[in-house]
Amino acid sequence: MPHPPAPSAPVRFGLLGYGFGGRVFHAPLIASSPECELVGVVTSSPDRRAQVARELPGTATVGSLVDLVEAGVEAVAISTPADSHSALTDEALRLGLAVVCDKPFAVEPTAARTSTELAASLGLPLSPYQNRRWDSDFRTVRALADDGALGTIRRLESRFERHAPGDGPGVAGGGTLLDFGAHLVDQALVLLGPVLSVYAELRERDSGLDDDVFVALTHEGGARSHLWGGWEQFAPGPRFRVTGTEGTLVVEAGDTQEDRLVAGDTPATLGDDWGTESSAGTLTTADGARPVPLQRGRWDTFYPAFAAAVRGTGPVPVEARDAVGTALVLQAARESAASGEVRRPAGA
């Protein structure tokens, strides 16, 4: 019987999928983490395999999860089409692997709950890849909320809006509500807590997928979140406007970690410059307005934290049960958009 890895040994990771998400959001961050070792990538595409050979020299390409297990991986990151997430998560867990699953964690709340319960029963770490909790802009919002600079938050306005009509999420991403909405709703729940009611609007593209999404949430504490997502907005609104009893924070320009990864930079190449921002937010109170420097973005902390969970020395960076709550809100949003009526998330 092989000896278990030493607590300090890097966690051997496999990556499922090498499209935009796998190449940009996962592989560079796993490879940049000393606590992780990227062993292999599951992809059947000859073009993707050639990309892996060019971009990740020495990393194997294999055809299945079983092949990864035979290569000795301990954990996997899933970055495949949205409708495959739940089946692959459950298969990986049954093979004894710890799992990071990209958003949307599951298309349906029932599937999210099934995966969460399966991981708990097997004693395996499972974490949704809600990396946007570590955006520079959202970390700034949380810091001001925590230190009382905003007072009691009454309204959160949050946007992921772009003008890139040809780049929006296709069938693989599940549409804008599931794609952008998974992050927008997760951030709202982290900041303001459980949701009592949901109202949503969306526009259907020629492809049949949704875009131009608006979701309004009423939280248990009385605060309201207004969330927008779209790929065909000529004039995107501010990334955040957060209003409390003591002030309002406006952040116009959003986090740039995605831009840096697309450009080929990584935490390993930038070091302490990773996640730093030149832009600032503006906090306006009864005393006037002042600039607020943005906190450093820290996507680079996700995989080290997950590796610690695999080694039993820390919690997972995002609890799987949080993804169940997000999925319930997104399901209520789909129902609201279809009916034109306010909906309550199941269990609310």
Question: What's a concise summary of this model?
Answer:
By secondary structure, this protein is of the alpha/beta class.
Produce the secondary structure layout:
Elements: E1 11-16, H1 20-32, E2 36-42, H2 46-55, E3 60-62, H3 65-70, E4 75-78, H4 85-94, E5 98-101, H5 109-122, E6 126-128, H6 136-147, E7 153-161, H7 176-192, E8 195-204, E9 210-219, E10 224-230, E11 240-244, E12 248-251, H8 257-262, H9 267-270, E13 280-285, E14 288-293, H10 302-311, H11 320-339
Parallel strand pairs: 1-2, 1-4, 2-3, 4-5, 5-6, 7-10
Antiparallel strand pairs: 7-11, 8-9, 9-10, 11-12, 12-13, 13-14
Poorly predicted sequence stretches spanning 5 or more consecutive residues: none
Radius of gyration: 20 Å
| Tally of discrete structural domains | 2
CATH topology of the largest domain: Dihydrodipicolinate Reductase, domain 2
SS summary, helix count? 11
Task: Tell me how many strands there are.
Answer: 14
Sheet with most strands: 8 strands, mixed
Q: What would you give as the CATH superfamily of the largest domain?
A: Dihydrodipicolinate Reductase, domain 2
Q: What is the strand content?
A: 15-25%
Can you offer a commentary on this structure?
With 348 residues, the chain is an alpha/beta fold. It folds into 2 domains: 138 residues, Rossmann fold (3-Layer(aba) Sandwich); 176 residues, Dihydrodipicolinate Reductase, domain 2 (2-Layer Sandwich). 35% of the residues lie in helices and 24% in strands. It contains 11 helices and 14 strands. The strands form 2 sheets. An 8-stranded mixed beta sheet has the order 8-9-10-7-11-12-13-14. Strands 3-2-1-4-5-6 form a 6-stranded parallel beta sheet, with helices on both faces. The radius of gyration is 20 Å and the shape is globular. The relative contact order is 0.16. The mean pLDDT is 95.
